[in-house]
Amino acid sequence: MSDGHVDGAVRYAQDAELEGQWHAAFVRSPLPHARVRSIDTSALPRECVALLPEDVAGVGRYGCQLKDQEVLADPARFVGDVVAAAAAPTRAAAREAARRVQVDFEELPAVFDPITAVSEGAPLLHPEAGESAGDAVSIGVRPLAGTNVCHRFRLVQGDADAGFARATVTVEETFRTASAQHAPMEPHATAARWTPEGRLELFTGTQTPFNLRADLAGLFGLTEDRVRILAPPMGGSFGAKTFTRLEAVVACLARKAGRPVKAVLDRAEEWVTLNRHPAVVRVRIGAAADGTLLAKRLDCWVDTGAYADCGPGVATKLGYAGIGPYRIPNVRVDALAVYTNLPPNGAFRGYGATQSVWASERAMDQLAERLGMSPLALRRRNLLRDGDRFATGEVMHDVHFEECLDAAARAVGYERDPRGKGLCVLLKGMQTPSRAAIALERTPVGYVVRCASCEMGQGVRESVRLQAAALLGCEPGQIEVPDPDTDSSPFDTRTTSSRSTHMMGRALAKAVADLRANGGERGHGEIVNDGGIDPDTGQGIASTHWHQGAAAAHVDVDEETGRVTVEHLHAAVYAGRVVDRAGAELQNEGSMIMGVGTALFERIEHTDGQITNANLSDYNVPSAGDLPRRLTHELIEREGAEAHGLGETALPPVPAAIGNALGSLGLDLAELPITSERVLEAVGARDRPGAEAAT
Amino acid sequence: MTLRLVLNGRPAALDADPGETLLDVLRREAGLLSVRPSCGIGVCGACTVLLDGEPVSGCLLRAAQAAGREVTTVEGIPAEHPVRRAFAAEHAFQCGYCTPGMVLTVAGMLEETPEPSDEQIVEGLGGNLCRCGCYVKIHAAVRRAAAA
User: Is the peptide bond before A433 cis (omega within 30 degrees of 0)?
Assistant: First the structure.
């Protein structure tokens, strides 16, 4: 890793300076659901440009999975939805101009939770179902017409009802997870300009340059080669900077202003830009007396906020990740992505697995207790092994769930004394189908490696550099990896789902072989992973490559105050082959620390759709003082294996490991985060007279 | 107004409005983009600078308050400084956005407490957030720098 980081030399999208650029500010709805009656711009200062509904009347709709989003919203569908915008020579002047735009709204009924939103008579956010974005995505989207359901994912394997009928013990419980804010240290930033030839160029912090190009080309009715995305490194993202965020409105402002325009969000605006899906997951799981799993049913309500964004994809992955890495002959999953009048929720490190693994793995411990079995033994008995079929019908290979689980259990001495300790094991899919490509070119000093993998701190550039140097037999310092540029980088699906080290490593091997076979000057390598699952049956290839991991926690609880101290947290993740050891360790550590925030305190709060903790003082992210007393982890490697993505595997198992550790003390938690108040409630429930007899 | 101060060891005169923050002036007038906006309320430390050797949040400090004083950004910390070397050696960063602020905070911390205990390190880092979660390696970097 270059120490351009340590000396502050890295330049991010927010640092972009385009010649003659103005700055943008947004006029946002103060109401959660409201039609725009009129807009009064008479108080605007002279030196500014306002973007108004009539300026975007000819522009289409956008959205990565459903085209349900307008550049300027009417109606506004959440508090903070952008209904107009302004550009001016300075950021302060733009903000002042935006404040002077007067909007007259007509308030509409609103809905703030996904269960109410799917009930009879709920106000509809998108009465006309959005048009599917087609090949911008790789899943079939199944909106349910006339409802707030923008996607239903269903998986059917065997006969769940028949399985439950044979079960000796069945557990049913409903679990909830809170919304969270990615809070990258660098807020969203975008600079746009239109060239004299009518091309749109964007300098933007994004994980998805080619998806963004397709979405914007569609919006403006341009061919894709008329849109250029340049993607500088991001000051963190964690899913926040995916698909179209500020880019559409900033591009429209630049067009109207006739000059480049740049937008950098204020911290508070991050909470109205993209958050993590809160979810309700009802788990029913049944087993024979010996602990053999017979049936599982999951019903999931995934709150995607006011726009679908990638909510259909999140609901799908949440749905199958909630099955867990187990052999279960009879499975039924229904996962609904549901519109509500809250800011849009989208990709977030863990991508649905965080929510459903919490539910699924808490339910496993509850089942173990009912069976009178050790939670470790129950899991071992049912874990997927090489050659087993997952509920999607695909046969599993290079399977290491048991190794991960055993390593986690060993690290906290689980078998010696399980009191105060909890375990969690998970599987998480990688984007499938997908494509990745590398273009190599020899230079006087080494090689240029062009690829569209975006750097957000995860170290993809270093991982590509190290893999290229090893394959080409040169020093990493001889490898140049330029920032992604859709004009010169070969197509890549996107930098998500911890796929880049794995996919680009394979594309590199092909590119190097091509270079060697063709004179040593240039090489091209492309990897195409086919697959995908049927949204109505859940059958198919969910993932060509599985992320596998486990975590164990040892906790201490102060039952007077409800304070949980994590004495020891350990994660074990299957890495296959490690490319960049320090980078790999940082991914595990960063995932675990983010997992601690999700487990214990991160939660977006809102009243009538208005977020009430949209700052880094009221919304806490983990600081150095929030770490477990011991935080350890391991990378499980195997000679000759492929590199496995590590960017998020160690996050989803953390909350359930901590929750199960509390469960071992009789404290039954069903909702994240595990606040002191909830722990005290659980203490009260455990100690209530008669509680023992009831269970 | 003209803000006169000692910036990274050299006298400097910068244009500033009286109400502006030091963060905005350092970025715009001095081109010091290592000083970074993030939370806007002085809790995250991404805009940390040393004011007469003490770590402060550039987003809270009015530029005028720096008049006549010594301001140090990471550009003023030499490459061979033990804290910079320790951060690089321990790979104590991911996206790097918070790193300049971390380096300055740790440099200030070690100036005051050359041999900090683990508790003092955790306390000293309390005002600097790293959303990538590099704290394990940052902690190791502080120990390494203290031992250098």
Answer: yes
Query: Cβ contact (<8 Å) for B95 and A183?
Result: no
Instruction: Give the number of A-B residue pairs with CB atoms closer than 8 Å.
Output: 152
Work out the angle between the directed axes of helices B82-89 and B99-112 (0-180°, nearest 10): 130
A-chain residues within 8 Å CB-CB of B137? Answer: 582, 585-586, 589
* Nearest alpha-carbon partner for B107 in B122, B125, B131, B132: B125
What per-residue string of b and e applies to A538-571 under the rule 16 or more CB within 10 Å gives b? beebbbbbbbbbbbbbbbebeeeebebebbbbbb
Q: Between the CA of residue A287 and those of A110, A160, A165, A461, A587, what are the distances in Å?
A: 42, 12, 10, 46, 36
Q: State which residue of chain A sits closest to B136, comparing Cα positions.
A: A589
User: Could you state, in chain order, the average pLDDT of each consecutive group of 10 residues for chain A (695 residues)?
Assistant: 81 97 98 98 97 96 94 98 98 97 98 97 87 58 92 98 98 98 98 98 98 96 98 98 98 98 98 98 98 98 97 97 98 98 98 98 98 98 98 97 98 98 97 96 98 97 97 97 98 96 97 97 97 95 95 98 98 97 98 98 98 98 98 96 96 98 98 98 93 52
**CB B97 to CB A235 under 8 A?**
yes
Q: In this structure, how many other beta carbons lie within 10 angstroms of the beta carbon of residue A296?
A: 28
Residues B72 and B51: their CA atoms lie apart, in Å, by 7
What is the bridge-based pairing of β-strands A261-264 and A189-194? Answer: antiparallel
pLDDT for position B114: 98
Residue of B nearest to A188 (CA): B38
Q: How far is CA A148 from CA A47, A88, A89, A144, in A?
A: 42, 38, 41, 8
- How far is it, in rounded angstroms, from Cα A276 to Cα A442? 42
Q: How far apart are CA B17 and CA A602, in angstroms?
A: 38
CB B68 within 8 A of CB B107: no
Give the chain A residue nearest B95 (alpha carbons).
A457
Distances (CA, A) of A472 to A440, A476, A480: 10, 10, 13
Q: Token pair of A578, please?
A: 């490690």
d(CA A265, CA A187): 6
Report all structural domains of chain A as residue ranges with CATH numbers, in order of start: 19-108+209-259 (3.90.1170.50), 175-180+275-431+537-687 (3.30.365.10), 434-529 (3.30.365.10)
Which domains does chain B show, CATH number per domain? 2-76 (3.10.20.30), 82-147 (1.10.150.120)
The set of long-range contacts for B74-77, using a CB threshold of 8 Å and a minimum separation of 24, is B74/A6, B74/A7, B74/A8, B74/B34, B74/B99, B74/B100, B74/B103, B74/B104, B75/A7, B75/A8, B75/B8, B75/B32, B75/B34, B76/B7, B76/B8, B76/B9, B76/B50, B77/B103, B77/B104, B77/B107
Q: How far is it, in rounded angstroms, from Cα A65 to Cα A310?
A: 6
| DSSP run (H or E) holding A199 | none
Round to whole Å and give the CA distance between A654 and A679.
17
In 3D, which of A259, A199, A254 has the Cα closest to residue A230? A199
